Amino acid sequence: MDTQITLRVDGADRPLTVDTRTSLLDAMRERLGATSAKKGCDHGQCGACTVLLDGRRVNSCLVLAVTAQGQEVTTSDGLAVDGQPHALHEAFVDHDAYQCGYCTPGQITSAAGVVAEARAGWPSAVTEDLVGDQVDLTDDEIRERMSGNLCRCAAYANIVPAVAEYATEQGVRA
Amino acid sequence: MREFRYEKATDPAGAVATLTAAPEGAYLGGGTNLVDLMRLGVATPDVLVDVRQLTSTEVEDLPDGGLRIGAAVPNADLAAEPRVRERFPLLAQALLAGASGQLRNRATTGGNLLQRTRCTYFTDVTMPCNKRAPGSGCGAVAGYHRNLAVLGATNRGGDDGHTCIATHPSDMAVALRALDATVRVLGAEGERAVPIGELHRLPGEDPSRDTTLAHGELITAIDVPALPWATRSRYRKVRDRASYAFALVSVAAAMDLRGTGPDAVVADVRIALGGVAHVPWRATVAEDALRGGPATEEAFAAAVAAELAAADPLPENAFKLPMATNLVTRTLLQISGEARA
Fold first, then answer.
1. Which positions of chain A have pLDDT values less than 50?
2. Are strands B190-195 and B182-187 parallel, antiparallel or unpaired?
3. Rounded to whole angstroms, how far apart are CA atoms B120 and B148?
4. Pick the CATH number of A2-79 from 3.30.930.10, 3.10.20.30, 1.10.3720.10, 3.30.465.10
5. B341 CB contacts (<8 Å, ≥6 apart)?
6. Nearest CB to B102: which of A42, A47, A125?
7. Are B103 and A59 within 8 A, CB to CB?
8. Is the pTM of this model over 0.90?
9. Average of per-residue pLDDT across B146-175
10. Is B42 near chain A, with CB under 8 Å?
11. B315: contact with A, CB 8 A cutoff
12. How confident is the model at residue B157 (pLDDT cuts 50, 70, 90)?
């Protein structure tokens, strides 16, 4: 059933007509040419499709495009400002935090979400002091909080230090 | 995926009216389970009524010290809510043990209660499943069932129309069951309050129905009554990997001790189990056995054994019984140790 919507992706308003069954991920990739977010499992299990929706990380494969109207969608591409790489992009390059690169845009948007959540004082399943308001993104915390992003090359050994570097810059890692 | 009409209601009563008039329709919350089930062909609604932002997104204080959680509060926000972390740590821990950061951001409190089983026969439309296709049989009994139910299941061998050994997948619901939460529901006839123990149902003769809600009824809020000693409570979960996996067995527990040291007595206790039944399983037999008795490892293990006497495990999931015994015993020891300290 076709519906007219406008999606705001990486700062640009993009009107389009979609079948109501279309996911945000498919609308971006197949209709708008915004291919930064990747399709891995299409079931919310791998995290390759992760985007920020009004600043919060979500699996765009499980979001119906019609429900995302009026919200700000940010992909890994959109984290770049004026063509300059985001600090997370730099950290992933510096730490060689990818091999094939397919999961990388999802890892990067997810990491941006992780750091924002830590700044807000959100605990995780491995946080010992549940009522504390300061989060220290230790390696264990990063592994737990990034567990919704799978890497089939198993580049985790370099992804964790890349996220850790950004967390340190952002003041949420001791 | 079946074609559907997308509706965005302006108020809860309007949503109820729309869905009540659409017998094959469904509410859409965060969509983290429903959209997937639609893609798999398991759920085939012809109308989706978007309620993700329709009910309250607030957590409010109740006069007794409890909390009213709006049905639209995202799981992530509820886990991070300071009053939940302080008053009901088992609830915050249960939420944080579930799903991934991305899913918790999107999933709602109401939707979490209504998520469907992750039994692989339910989610695969080429397989028999009495829950998805009533009367088609149960493939799990003679097949892959290590993750499935050991308590309260209907098991007549798998070939009849009623066998179902599915488990309820929610972590949050297990904590809410231990806390005696009340689910506030709006229907065509008005509002009603459903004790969470009466929301989910055992498969019985109709495994297709997970809950006692009528079509069109909308969860608007969840009330968690005050429980001062829940400050010493825990949610612990055993799973196949360290993070982002459903429970093999989980426990939500809280305990109130009278006295100190080795002579301390269990004044009151709450125990609910996840991953073992079609519902979040309240361990009332174990609670009754413990209340008024000693807070010792032997007493804890004996109480769980009494609870599990009714278990009817299958070859591949019998491991859940010693796992549950050990998990509950360790968790109660941990809580009682903290209480004595």
1. none
2. antiparallel
3. 10
4. 3.10.20.30
5. none
6. A47
7. yes
8. yes
9. 92
10. no
11. no
12. confident
* Interface confidence (ipTM) of the complex: 0.98
- The mean pLDDT value of chain B amounts to 96
The CATH superfamily label for domain A87-169 reads [2Fe-2S]-binding domain (1.10.150.120)
CA atoms within 13 A on the CB side of B176: 30
Predicted pLDDT at B263 = 87
Residues A63-101 as b/e (b if ≥16 CB within 10 A, e otherwise) read bbbbbbeebbbbbbbbbeeeeeebebbebbeebebbeee
Domains of chain B: 5-50 (3.30.43.10), 236-340 (3.30.390.50)
Read off the pLDDT of each residue in B92-111 and give the average, rounded to a whole number: 98
Cross-strand bridge partners of residue A56: A53
Q: Kindly determine whether residue B86 and residue A122, on different chains, have CB atoms separated by under 8 Å.
A: no
For B37-60, the pLDDT digits (tens) are 999 999 999 999 999 999 999 999
The confidence score (pLDDT) of residue B258 equals 93
Smallest Cβ distance to A125: which of B6, B86, B243?
B243
**pLDDT the model gives residue A55:** 98
Model confidence at B339: pLDDT above 80: no
Contacts of A59 in chain B (CB under 8 A): 32, 102-103, 106
| CB of A51 closer than 8 Å to CB of A37 | yes
CA–CA separation, B248 and B99 (whole Å): 14
Within this chain, domains A2-79 and A87-169 share the same CATH topology: no
Question: How far apart, in Å, are the Cα atoms of B313 and each of A101, B93, B119?
Answer: 44, 28, 16
Contact A51, A73 (CB under 8 A): yes
Say whether pLDDT at B341 is over 70: no
For chain A, domain boundaries = 2-79, 87-169
pLDDT at A60: 98
Strands in A42-170 per DSSP E: 50-53, 56-59, 72-74
Here the tokens at position A67 are: 């429900």
